[in-house]
Amino acid sequence: MYSIGKFLIALAVLVGAGLAGSTSHAAVITLATNQPASATITVDCPSGCEGLVGDPIASLSTTEAWGYRFGRASEAALASNFSTLTGLTVPASAVTKTNGGGENFSFNVGEGWFFVKYGRWTSFLLSYAEQSVTFLKTGRGPAGLSNYGSIAPVPLPAAGWLLIAGLGGLFMVRRRRSA
């Protein structure tokens, strides 16, 4: 009984921390660190962001975002590839693509997932807040910014967290009555 109570308290703390959001801090993320490149390409996020790294098990990093070679940058392809990497369900209509242009470029992103396509590579990043991010390229190489945009995963509604908490509470009441 005591260990279940500790588990429910830990779960409540995690859910509360998730609903409260992450602490924002500036980040400069190097793109395509898993690909050979003659130029260094970064995204400067003044309000903070994290890059998607790893394949097939994806995780987030505050210092790098891997570059993935997916071919075309159509909304359907981006949504499908993002879903494959993260396991999040994303319809093609949830991808908003904007053409880039150049080697150094600033663009606005909302809070949540966004992508950057440069040369043959695409990197996915998670923004902590709505902000203006800067794409910077230093050194020589063919990877100029060609596309960027946002991805809006289908979220678990807040009611889902309330349902989980409610079921946990009912479970605890039932256990106390049977004890």
Describe this structure as you would to a colleague.
The protein has one domain (24-157). The protein has 179 residues and is α+β, with helices and mostly antiparallel strands. The chain is elongated and about 70 Å long. The protein has helices spanning 2-20, 75-86, 158-178; strands spanning 27-31, 40-45, 49-53, 59-61, 64-65, 95-102, 105-109, 112-118, 121-127, 131-138, 145-151. Helix content is 29%, strand content 35%.
Which features does this protein show?
179 residues; alpha+beta; 6-stranded antiparallel beta sheet; 5-stranded mixed beta sheet; 35% strand
Total helical elements: 3
How many runs of DSSP E, i.e. beta strands?
11
**Overall body shape:** elongated
Poorly predicted regions: 5-23
Beta strand %: 35-45%
Largest sheet: 6 strands, antiparallel
Q: Approximately how much helix is present in the residues?
A: 25-40%
Q: Give the mean pLDDT.
A: 77
The strand order across the widest sheet is 4-3-9-8-11-6
